[in-house]
Specification:
single chain, mainly alpha, 51% helix, globular, 7% strand
Length: 83
Amino acid sequence: MRSRIDTSAAVSVDGIAKSILVLRDQNVLLDCDLADLYGVTTKRLNERVKRNFARFPIDFIFQLTAEEETALRSHFATSKNQR
């Protein structure tokens, strides 16, 4: 049985815009934010991408470096503390 994307929840354009990050001079969405948008787990999204890798443009996916991941974690921890 194929799983379906949950389209019943309204998606806020503002909410998506707040999720867009600039990395390597490109606008990106993290896999966790994209998974939320489609109503699936991050694990399931990544499984589907790996299974269908040939369907995606070459610039659709990239892996964060260790330094980028550390910087993002630090940024998110700071943002949460400011709320």
